[in-house]
Every structure is written in structure tokens, then in C-alpha cells.
Amino acid sequence: MKIITANLNGIRAATRKGFWDWFNDQDADLLCLQELKAHEHQLPPEALPEEFHRHFHFAQKPGYSGVALYSRNKPDAVHIGLGSIDPNTDWSRFDAEGRFVMADFGNQSVISAYFPSGSGTPERQAGKMVFLEQFLSLVKRLKNEGRELIICGDINISHQAIDLKNWRGNQKNSGFLPEERAWFSQWLAVGFVDPFRTLYPEKEQYSWWSNRGQARANNVGWRIDYHVCTPETAAKIIEIDVFTDHWYSDHAPVTAIFGD
Questions:
Q1: Residue 154 a catalytic site member
Q2: What are the pLDDT digits (tens) for 189-209?
Q3: Whole-prediction pTM
Q4: What is the rounded distance in angstroms from the CA atom of residue 22 to the CA atom of residue 8?
């Protein structure tokens, strides 16, 4: 099984840059997309491949956020928005932003998620921390109910110093704040796995680069795009690749290959 996750920073712009030409050569089983920045009527024809079942969570705000999940096999069930599987928690402000699709295949669920960024204002950072707390409670519950989880997407957090180039200068910036990193450690402590770091404990590999300056040319990046899994599923991953030979976005597609 092959699962690709990619923050496109605009599905229309990524299409013009050739993303679907690349994807069609990948023979992937599932594709998780973030930051569509489009509504359904704005999707280019290339983004509607007939061989895939397609599920979207669009943001209410035009040109903002939005996630998608594509699968070759038809899911047993699909959940659009966090409130659809966690109605006892107030997800309204996050669901209005189009951040979550989950597809169930037997006892395994694949999630395409776009976590909030805390950059800009203290209010946005406070909202991000609320999201993180609520999200952790949700996935813990799903795991305890016996679901195998593959959580794909832009988490907007670099967990360790090895996960970003200039870690010393970013310790007061959203995405590498001590409380965010502590939350990520807690996520792993309750029974989830970052399989990239398990497979490549010393590899300096990033998945996002700022458009400012020469960040991409100088490889001054952050690893913020993940496949986070429950342990049994994580143990099946034999390879994770970050594709940087061509640029479709300020993020790179990340591909996980699962063995039997």
C-alpha cells in the first residue's frame, strides 16, 4: 500500500505546476491533500480522476484551507469534519475551515488533516492549542476503541531540533514552541508513532520551505508533514520518501510505502 500526503497550497496552482502528472505516475492507493484553497466548482478536471473515490472538506471562506482524501478502494464509511465523529466536542470554528476527512476501511482509518497555524496573533496560537488538545482526545478515543489509524497531513509542528534547520532561532515561533513540542511528545507517549523518525532517526529531511529569501535553495526548511500511525500500522511502513525533484507547492509530497 502506498499513501501520499501533500499540502498543495492551492490545488489549482499545483495542477498548473504539474502535480497530477506526477501523481498519475505514482501508482498510489490513497492520496491526502491539504490547503485546497478552492470549492468544489473550482476544482480542475485533473483533480477528479475517475479511478479514485474522492471526498472533500471545503472551507467556508473562499480561497482558504480545505482537505481531500482520494482512495482506489471504496471506504466503508467517510467522516467529513471533526464534529461528524466527535459531536460532543465543539469543533465548529475548525470545521468551518475545512480541516478533516476520515475514511474507514474495516478497522483501519485514514485521516487527511490540516492542523491550524498559530502564526500571526496570540489568538490564533491559543486556538491552535485548543485544537491540539481536542484532537489528541479524539484520536486517543478512536485508538482505544480498536481502530488502526493513519493520520496524514500538515501538522504545523516540528517535533525535534533535527526537524528544522534553524531550530535555535525558532524556539519562540509557532511550530516549534515548547508547548507544541511537548504536545507532540504526549501524542507519541499515548501510543502513536512518527514512522519517519523511527525509520530515519538521524536524517535531516524537511517538507516545507518558506517562499521568502533563499530558503528552498539553501534547504532551510521544516518537517511538518507527517504520517502518524498507531503502532501496528506504523510497523508495516518500509519506506517514506519526501519528493523534492520538482516543486508543486511550498510543501513537498511525502509518500509512505507499507508492506504486508
A1: yes
A2: 999 999 999 999 999 999 999
A3: 0.97
A4: 13
8 A C-beta contact, residue 217 and residue 178: no
Give 115-157 as a DSSP string: PPP--S-HHHHHHHHHHHHHHHHHHHHHHHTT-EEEEEEE---
Task: Delimit the domains of the chain by residue range.
Answer: 2-258
Q: Which of 86, 154, 194, 225 is catalytic?
A: 154
Gap between the Cα atoms of 32 and 254, Å rounded: 10
Q: What burial class does residue 81 get, using C-beta atoms within 10 Å of its C-beta: 0-12 exposed, 13-18 middle, 19+ buried? A: buried
C-alpha–C-alpha distance, residues 170 and 54, integer Å: 37
The reply to whether CATH 3.40.50.1100 applies to domain 2-258 is no
Q: Compute the radius of gyration of the chain from its Cα atoms.
A: 17
**Eight-state DSSP code of residue 206:** -
pLDDT in tens, 79-129: 999 999 999 999 999 999 999 999 999 999 999 999 999 988 999 999 999
